[in-house]
Amino acid sequence: AWVPFTYSLQARYLVKHDPQLSYAALAAILGLHMLGYSIFRGANGQKDAFRRNPNDPALSHLNFLQTKRGTKLLTSGWWGMARKINYTGDWIMGLTWCLVCGFGSIVPYFYAIYFAILLFHRSTRDDQMCQEKYGEDWETYKKIVPYKF
């Protein structure tokens, strides 16, 4: 019941605390947000397109690991950079919502801190489920794509 309040925390903080950020700082934050959005949407779009039609000629440049289960795990493109690259983009966007509040208080950064913990926990849980699901193929995959984020 408390989670929705974390989404408005920065706006509530800004009502009474103007960080007086420069246009350059705001532009940098916007650029960082756009980077996070590009990573998030690019990675999820690539995974979705590959799931829909892995034989699409537009995806022929992507490498993958053929698993014993018959599924394919992407090992290049966005997913060759990290196993949870989409989480990285998502967290960057959340961080930028905090950055617009400046550095006068840690309170607006609650969301970024909470979200980092949540994503780390989720990635650990996902890693365990994938280990059970793919077995030794998952170990091979982790050697090819060693980074979580």
Topology diagram in text:
Blueprint: H1 3-7, H2 9-16, H3 23-52, E1 64-66, E2 72-74, H4 78-81, H5 85-99, H6 110-134, H7 136-144
Helix pairs in contact: 3-5, 5-6, 6-7
Structural summary, described in words:
The chain is mainly alpha-helical and 149 residues long. Helix content is 64%, strand content 4%. It is built from 7 helices and 2 strands. It has helices spanning 3-7, 9-16, 23-52, 78-81, 85-99, 110-134, 136-144, and strands at residues 64-66, 72-74. It has a two-stranded antiparallel ribbon. Helix 5 runs antiparallel to helix 6 and helix 6 (110-134) packs across helix 7 (136-144). The chain is elongated. The protein starts with a helix and ends in a 5-residue tail after the last helix. The mean pLDDT is 95.
Average residue-wise pLDDT = 95
How much helix is in the residues? 55-70%
Which series of helices and strands comes N to C? HHHEEHHHH
- Beta-strand level of the residues, as a percent range? under 5%
Number of strand segments: 2
- End-to-end separation: 28 Å
Shape: elongated
Q: Which value, in Å, is the CA radius of gyration?
A: 19 Å
Biggest β-sheet strands, sense, barrel: 2 strands, antiparallel
Structural class: mainly alpha
Per DSSP, the total helix count is 7
Which residues sit in consecutive blocks of at least 5 with pLDDT less than 50? none
| Strand order in the largest sheet | 1-2
